[in-house]
Design goal:
It is built from 11 helices and no strands. It is mainly α and 237 residues long. Pfam families: TetR_C_11, TetR_N.
């Protein structure tokens, strides 16, 4: 039997992180190919390759390479994988960058559901800690700053990640309205902004301001004081 062709040998660089042949996603515990992935490749998706590629992107960004300067060809070379390996996972650079962002983005704790105040404090405390992490993490700060300069990618990130967080806040506020803890004549989206915006403003726009412990409680208590149901007016004489 003849050896591999020159073209096949060049498909993956020497020392590349390879994917197992003749195994299944179930047997290896790796993630299955996403919908829309190119079929018929004959190889299951290997989570170790995903990790290698994402870590390579983070390293390059931390070294000062801009998103605009990144190409799938360069990423394949730097990660030690074939370009086809990248395209089996991501349709292009924007899809890959979304996964890079998700890898840095903790989903946050699940609200306990017992107290509207406590749930809101939990959510704002997550934002406070994330703000502290952004200040102390050069790579997180670099990635977020660069993605903000790409409107389409930033919009996609908001639609897939940030929107889910906002929906969780809306759910807590609607529960508070139903239980009588919050006035039910208020716009839920505006109400969410009243709670979340002060923390985001301090964490992301005014990085010189302190993000001290107890800030989440201060914000929640101040806003709740203004949005609690008003006592019924006394009857007219």
């Amino acid at each position: 039997m003849t050896g591999p062709t020159r073209e096949a040998a060049a498909a993956e660089p020497t020392g590349a992180v390879t994917e197992p042949v003749g195994t299944t996603a179930e047997s290896t515990g790796t993630a299955a190919e996403p919908a829309g992935a190119v079929a018929g490749r004959g190889r299951p998706r290997n989570a170790a390759v995903d990790t290698t590629v994402i870590e390579t992107v983070l390293r390059l960004l931390e070294d000062g390479v801009t998103i605009s300067d990144l190409s799938m060809e360069r990423l394949a070379r730097e990660a030690g994988v074939g370009k086809a390996t990248l395209y089996r996972r991501w349709a292009g650079k924007e899809e890959l960058m979304l996964d890079v962002l998700r890898s840095l983005d903790d989903t946050g704790p699940e609200p306990a559901g017992r107290s509207v105040r406590d749930d809101l404090v939990t959510m704002l405390e997550f934002l406070r800690r994330r703000g502290l992490a952004k200040r102390s993490s050069a790579v997180l700060r670099t990635v977020v700053t660069q993605v903000q300069s790409h409107p389409k990618l930033w919009k996609e990130y908001h639609e897939t990640v940030v929107t889910a967080r906002r929906e969780a806040v809306y759910a807590v506020l609607r529960r508070g309205m139903a239980s009588g803890e919050i006035r039910d004549d208020l716009d839920v989206e505006l109400l969410a902004d009243l709670f979340v915006a002060p923390m985001l403003s301090r964490a992301m726009l005014h990085e010189w301001k302190e993000l001290s412990e107890g800030l989440a409680e201060q914000i929640v208590d101040a806003v709740l004081e203004g949005v609690r149901p008003r006592p019924a007016a006394p009857p007219a004489p």
